[in-house]
Amino acid sequence: MGNVQILLRQHVGAPCAPCVEVGADVKKGTLIAVPTGLGANIFSSVYGKVTEITEDRIIIEPAEEQPDEFVPIDVPEDASKLDMVKAAGIVGMGGAGFPTGVKLNINLAETQMGEIDPEINPELPADFKVDCGYILVNAAECEPGLEHNIRQIEEQCDKVVRGVKYCMEITHADKAIFAIKKKNQKAIKTLQKALESEPAISMHLLPDIYPMGEERAVVRECLGVNLTTTQLPSAARSVVVNLETAAKVAEAVDEKKPCISKNLTVRGKLVGGNGAHVFMDVPVGVSVGELIERAGGIDGKYGEIIMGGAFTGKSTELDEPITKTTGGIIVTVEFPDLHGANVGILVCACGGSEARMREIAEKMNGKVVSVCRCKQAIENKPGAPLKCLRPGNCPGQVKNNMQFKKDKCEYIIIGNCSDCSNTVMASGPKMGLKVFHQTDHAMRSVGHALYRSLKVSKQVSQDIDF
């Protein structure tokens, strides 16, 4: 194992402050950084010695021996389950990174989100309370090509269910619903068996389209409530928790284990083929390159390495470390060469940012001459990340395609959801526009169908009660 690099910001909020010094000996579970505001505790994921502390990370040289034992979280004997979750440094492990100890303390979650964005909750009274009716378990594994969430249900279902029940207890929720795609039949059968004696927990089957795992999409599909772009799930009396996060809650409560590892999928242009390599409990801070080598190594020339999913991930380098929110590592095929042709980019709230889209255009040797935004993508305030009005349900894109044509684009690069891509394809090719999706190189790399015209029905969601 090479040096482990623990980033000081692995969550929504400000970077943590180191609480160790260079030269310190650390163990798995040693507290090494603490929040300075909204954030979550950070721990060493290995036995070793701190060799360097920089502005954004703590670097640890691992010891040759790595025992399984860890330092338990430091909480009083009578600590509440919520206190354990906070002490363990758990964050949303589906990628969002919001501190779970804040999210599950639903009143505090509302207050702190208001502090982050006053437009959401400008002034909350001191006696403000949220009636939490549901824990919604995000088991959608939204990003195509990733498989570690579904694998965890298949192999560690009991732990996940325990974590969900703890989340229900902490929030006083009456019910829980697993949101899972209908295609994952093995995981569904495993979950059905586990829930036979859990009358308060049910399943909701989702269609296999992107982005069914977006938080507001989960609320809409499970509860039939359409949240605005400024509303939190609490407006629908719910808290949305990723299933891996739920498992970490179980570890914190049952074992007093800090959040020091991550499950993830590595796949793409690798020696041995493009099948998924699922790695469970990888120490946070291990390098991208080390995980790729564990998966067989890169097969020849490649386009780029994506950390995260094909839609929302970012390009990365071999020496970069994984964090608590890293879900995937995808090694892609080489990019096509557009030989300087005029390109339009269509930015969507469900995919990459404009900067990411421009990066892809540059790697394809295209000249960006026009930029449009999906008609449903809005900013809650200037400079804020885009939010979709109705994630996964998109109107037509004829107006944008007409603008691309007017701007003399030969190609367009889109980053849209399944339905939105479908609406682009309804008119774009008829206007002579050649379409690339920002995920094309990743989808070709993992053997997944390209995002173009929608081939599956959107109306296959259903509830399963036990």
What can you tell me about this protein's structure?
- The chain is of the alpha/beta class and about 475 residues long.
- It has four domains: about 5-60, OB fold (Dihydrolipoamide Acetyltransferase, E2P) (Beta Barrel), CATH 2.40.50; about 80-255, 3-Layer(aba) Sandwich (Rossmann fold), CATH 3.40.50; about 260-330, Roll (Ubiquitin-like (UB roll)); about 340-445, AF0625-like (Rossmann fold, 3-Layer(aba) Sandwich), CATH 3.40.50.
- About 25% of the residues lie in helices and about 20% in strands.
- The chain is built from twelve helices and 23 strands.
- It has helices spanning about 80-85, 100-105, 105-115, 150-170, 185-195, 215-225, 245-255, 290-295, 355-365, 400-405, 420-425, 440-445; strands at about 5, 15-20, 25, 30-35, 40-45, 50-55, 55-60, 135-140, 175-180, 200-205, 240, 260-270, 275-285, 305, 315, 330, 340-345, 365-375, 375-380, 385-390, 410-415, 435, 460-465.
- A hairpin with an 8-residue loop joins β19 (about 375-380) and β20 (about 385-390).
- The longest helix is centred in the middle third of the chain and has 24 residues, at about 150-170.
- The radius of gyration is 22 Å and the shape is globular.
- About 50% of the residues are buried.
